[in-house]
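Q: Joint fold for the lines below.
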Amino acid sequence: MSQARSVYHFNSVIVREPSRSVVNGLRADDRGNPTYDGVKAEHDAYIAAMRDAGVEVTVLPALEAFPDSIFVEDPAVVFTEGAVLLRPGAASRVDETAEITPTLRDMFETVLDLPNPGFADGGDVLTTPKSVMIGLSARTDKVGAEGLAACIAKLGRKAEIVATPEGVLHFKTDCSLLDDESILSTARLARSGVFKDFKQIIIPEGEEPAANALRVNDVVMVGSDFPRTIEMLDKLGYKVVPMKTTEIGKIDAGLSCMSLRWYRNGR
Ligand code: CIR
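A: Joint structure:
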């Protein structure tokens, strides 16, 4: 049943309210702190867009001790068949997994643990109809990727370990699934050949952060700071929903990172 659906057909998501400490979120280049109010407004709009897309949203409370905990995509990965609890590759984020575990145990019958040792972030995991791609990065090491691939196999899906371009935070920082056959990718990631079996839609030069778009049911959410990408996808016939990501962009985040998404049977 679940396999017959598109992998971007969701009816359930989990998000977490931003904490006041979100202004201290991790970032590779400091372009100044985001404001709490700005992040909160972007997050509120994201929840509203999810509901508009037909998804039931579970909103978890803010965690002051974890500035990056709004990015619930990283401590776990979820599928219709079950969840995998991960071990984030940034020291300040490792304990976010324990915080989200009770919710996942409550919502999923099958919850697997990433084997120890090894690190893996959900931001490095791209689910496509052909496979679940796991990008190696500064956050996801080879042992972690292999452990995650084994968990994904246990859930009945095929995993594939691939590379993330040097200096890019997560695999999905540079790509997203647009539909069953098409991937939106930066030129630098597409050049590696990982998407040779897909139709590749390349991000216009200078709008690289737009690659972290998000297909949810009929719509594609895209950062509103990226007009050329929006116009390109619009012309290709996608139903684009522009979303403000200016503040979360200052802490290296985009649209996939703020939710865990899956199709929950029986809803
Ligand atoms: C971090 O560096 O962990 C956060 N500031 C950003 C995480 C973004 N996560 C994602 O794209 N999955």
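Q: Anything notable?
A: Residues 25-27, 68, 71, 73-74, 90, 93, 122-123, 170, 173, 251-254, 256-257 surround citrulline (CB under 6 Å). The helical segments are 36-52, 96-107, 142-154, 187-190, 227-235, 246-249.
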